[in-house]
Specification:
There is one protein chain. By secondary structure, the protein is of the alpha/beta class. It has helices spanning 13-29, 58-68, 86-97, 119-127; strands at residues 4-8, 32-37, 76-81, 101-105, 113-114, 117-118, 131-135. The chain has a five-stranded parallel β-sheet with strand order 3-2-1-4-7. Helix 3 (86-97) packs parallel to helix 4. The two termini are 23 Å apart.
Length: 136
């Protein structure tokens, strides 16, 4: 059913739940699982930074911590760290990877969210060319 699944991670409980569900889907389909983190860039940071943070950064620690919540030993996983607008980056990476599905948290750690979901998950749901599964 799935060959490639993209899971955006931001450290939120919903994102970790999404990872758990994505892992189950990946196992059932023998799919490759891409774990994506888009660090929040503070105003004082350079918003035009083109290269990903170093592999030993807080972003890598966040993904490794999320991986500890599941048994990933039998999964084909890849870790991606990208900068930019989270919704745009998720959409772009899904397209680049030819993802069959994006499995993401309904609400993340961002400030802009309401009863209809987080702003990032709403934007991805509206614009992504592949299936989007949002997890509460």
């Amino acid at each position: 059913m799935y060959r490639t699944i993209l899971v955006p991670l931001d450290g939120s409980g919903n994102a970790n739940k999404a990872l758990d569900i994505a892992a189950h889907l990946a196992r059932a389909s023998h799919a490759r699982l891409y774990l994506l983190h888009v660090p929040v860039i503070n105003e004082k940071d350079d918003a035009t930074q083109a290269s990903p943070p170093p592999r030993n950064s807080a972003a890598m620690q966040l993904i490794e911590t999320a991986l500890e919540t599941i048994d990933a030993s039998d999964l084909d996983t890849s870790i991606l760290v990208r900068t930019g607008d989270p919704a745009e980056v998720i959409e772009r990476e899904a397209h680049r990877l030819d993802a069959d599905a994006i499995v993401m948290g309904y609400k993340g750690l961002g400030r802009t969210s309401n009863a209809t979901g987080g702003s990032v998950s709403r934007a991805v749901n509206h614009r992504a060319a592949c299936r989007v599964v949002t997890v509460r």
